[in-house]
Amino acid sequence: MRRSFVLPQWLQDGHAPDAIVLDLHMPGINGWRFCELLYTQRVSSQPVPPVLLVSATYAGMDVEELLTDMGASAFLPLPAEPARIRAQVQQLLDNPVASKGFHAWVVSSNDSEIARIRSAFSARGWHVHGWKNGTQMQPASALPTPDVLIIDEPLSDMTTDELVSWCKGAHPYAMCMLIGPEPMREVSSSTNSLDVRLPKGCDLSYLLTLCEKWRWERALSRVEHLLEIRTSDLHESEAQFRGLFEMLPDVLVIYDEQGVIRHINSRGAEQLGYVPHDLIGAAFDTISSHPVNLVSGPPMVGTATVVPVWTEALLYQKDGADLPVETMERSVRFQGHQQTLFVARDMAARQRMAEENATLEQQLRQVQKMEAVGRLASGVAHDMNNILTAILAHAGLLKARGDEGNPSWIAGDVIENAVHRGKELTTQLLGFARQGKHHHVSVDMHTVIREVSRLLSRTVDKRITLKTDLMADEPWVKGDPNQLYQVLMNLAVNASDAMAHKGELIFHTSNEHVSSEQAAMIPGLAAGDYVVVRVADTGEGISQDVQAHIFEPFFTTKEQGQGTGMGLAMAYGIIKNHHGYIGVTSTPAVGTTMRVYLPAVLCDTPQTIITPVGVPSTGTGHVLIIDDENAAAEAAQAILEFLGYTTTIRLSGRDAVEFYQDSSPQVDLVLLDMVMPDISGSECFAELRRIRPDSKVLLCTGYDRNHAVQELLNQGVVGCIQKPYDLDELARVCADALKQPSPVKVCASVSYV
After folding, report:
1. Which stretch, 50-59, 220-229, 645-654, has highest mean pLDDT?
2. Nearest Cα to 504, choosing from 487, 492, 515?
3. Domains of the chain, each with CATH number or no CATH
């Protein structure tokens, strides 16, 4: 590419090339000036060769304006590979694209004047369009936008003022010229945007010079404006890139082919114990033994498809220690020169992150496993409760039909005791399965802890010291006081068993806020405010292998016959059901701390619930028993008929609704199972209430889905009874329900006081 302040002589002499590749920004003469000379100094008979503009500054929507302003044929943004430039030039040679050229519109009633202007302008590469009057010109919107509008007075159809006003409104960036008779008349103020006035018969070379000067000045103004915008954008982009470069956690170094560090990011220098200005200008081998070598190949920009190769290496820190890293190098253009970008990633930090991710993954798998086992335990407990209901009911009938001490009474009593032990196991299973929260009341955890401590003080070995450190200012939580009592009692008993008759058992409480960041590190713990109860002992501790299984059902390290393995599983389920979290920290031979997080509530009047145990009573009335388990239904029927009630059994919700709809005998009470295969207890209840709005319905369930039961209680269910129930419980609940004049909630359960 030749550089000169005037068009090269060989081009002025008519020796035009087949194509020109022109950079917009060059020293001495820029692309805009070159194009001006190309159009104004060339031999008039020589056509302008196709011009390919190249620039690293412009792109996108600006290209069309550049091609028009410069009179070029095509545009290619930089950087571009040589092969792409050659292909673009070859395309112009094979399929020449005429330059955009410049457009002049002429309005004159004199055809010879239009022809004279067209001849002069066309010889300089202009495209001239002429009309005899303004009315003909105005619909010409399909033509390219004019650069110059020439109006030759007088006009046959409108005033000059009207046409000039239209021209400036329709084409505000066009130069508007008026050719009029001597002397020139004054132009009205409405047409003060007229740019040039010339006399009739003016020299066309002068007219053409004015037009080209105007045209190139306007082009230069637009190019400078675009350059100003692009420069501002580049400064902003550079500032953003520099901010990102500085804050990346990796070590980022740019060094030249002499091995001199030209730039290093702040975070990278900090990892090596330096500040950036300590290393800029220093030799690269100050921080690395990696051989200095300017990496060959294209810069990183536009090479995203190249897969980087990472290698292991050591970096030297300021204190002399080695930093193990993974490194990668790429060629980049920095400060106008091809240099090398060296990227180093701390392997230790990466290893720590991998270990943290593995730990979180393991915790997540454990949570998922516990959830799956919980669903299994829930189903097992439900089915077992149905079986125990039948056994317990008939055992109660054996005792009720015989005198105390006779063989049938003794047999019934033995069966009852065995069933109660089984009931305790299913209760634990339901606790683990998170299906056993019966009450939603405010509970003061300090009161629960004091009661647990009071009981433990009379039962644990006297050499174990009990301490309480109740530091929570707001110790209230929402939940079931019975179950929370069971959790703390179980944790305390386990702690005392681990201390071999000597040590300290400490209850500690606090109020803690868990942030979103903290919660993200502990699966199962949500962000929020908690009452935290810690049960700590100075016992033998728990190994890491055992800690992974302590909340699983039936897992125990105790000898056979000394534990069922359900205590911590039950505690886990109860705490989860209270939307809390339970975790363990333990060191062998030092001790164990169990941490219980329970969502805190604001309450200064904690409540407890006392439900008195009723006395067995006989009764009269018709009871409809709805239960898909035949054994459980027949057990309820045997008890109720023994007590004096008339009963009807239906083994599905659909059959029960049909019976209720068509039954001639009055049904006084419905004993409704909560879970059935055809329609649920809640759907069946809705149908019964639709048939008879004053229906009295008593829920019966093998496990307590608290939100569903509570919703039905709110809708008018008169009570609920938990399977397995005995004769006394069923007698009391049915009698209480039938005595109520309107639906009243009655629950067969006793809560801790």
Report:
1. 645-654
2. 492
3. 9-94 (3.40.50.2300), 102-216 (3.40.50.2300), 245-350 (3.30.450.20), 358-431 (1.10.287), 440-599 (3.30.565.10), 622-748 (3.40.50.2300)
